Amino acid sequence: LNAAMLLVAFFVNRGWIGIATFLILAFTGGIAQLTSGLIGPFVASLDIRIVIPLVIAGLLLQCFGVALCIVSDLGVGPYDAVYLILSERLHISIRTCRIAMDLSCAVIGLLLGGVAGFVTVFAVVSMGPAINMLVKILERLPLIKNAGDFALKKDGNA
Questions:
Q1: What is the pLDDT of residue 120?
Q2: Does residue 63 contact residue 127 with C-beta atoms inside 8 Å?
Q3: Distance CA 42, CA 16 (A)
Q4: Contact 129, 60 (CB under 8 A)
Q5: Got the DSSP string for 67-115?
Q6: Which residues, at least 6 apart from 77, have a Cβ–Cβ distance to it below 8 Å?
Q7: Which SS3 state, helix, strand or coil, does residue 47 take?
Q8: How confident is the model at residue 155 (pLDDT cuts 50, 70, 90)?
Q9: Count of CB atoms situated within 10 Å of the CB of 90
């Protein structure tokens, strides 16, 4: 699926593909598997009052990483590239496109026999707004002042 999304980004707008894209492809799955195996059993044994803040912190950290990739102009993951391209093409906010894409993936997962719980629902409704907000904040920082120039991205030149 990542390969298909990468091909869409490559042919529709290469401006979202960069070194970070390939680092994300190379390491995200392995790191997720490793950390899930290492801390998954520990987290599963914790009280829900501790798990919920950990989940929120983890999702915010992930949103910060995505926003940083967006404004750094070093590329984004294939999944992120697709909703960013949709956002540009349809003139819809990053927030709305991310929610729509997350919701679509969650529904497809359910139809294929997967399960959805609190974290799935929370991620679907919160990650789009969080990424949108963090992009706006990071674009204002003096050190990232010229990064994330969406005008360059719109025509595919980077």
A1: 95
A2: yes
A3: 37
A4: no
A5: HHHHHHTS---HHHHHHHHHHHHHT--HHHHHHHHHHHHHHHHHHTT--
A6: 2, 20, 21, 24, 25, 28, 66, 69
A7: coil
A8: very low
A9: 11
What CA–CA distance (Å, rounded) separates 62 from 31?
Answer: 13
d(CA 38, CA 53): 19
What are the tokens at 122? 């929370």
Residue type, 68: L
Residue 104 tokens read as: 């679509």
pLDDT computed for residue 136 by the predictor: 92
Residue 144 in this model has a pLDDT that exceeds 70: no
Q: How far is CA 21 from CA 3, 38, 68, 70, 126, in A?
A: 11, 26, 13, 11, 23
Please, is 94 exposed, middle or buried when counting C-beta atoms within 10 Å of its C-beta (0-12, 13-18, 19+)? buried
| C-alpha span between 156 and 111 (Å, rounded) | 35
**Cβ atoms of 98 and 26 closer than 8 Å:** no
Please state the pTM of the whole predicted model. Answer: 0.83
How far apart are the C-alpha atoms of 26 and 4, rounded to whole Å?
16
117 burial type by CB count under 10 A (0-12 exposed, 13-18 middle, 19+ buried) = exposed
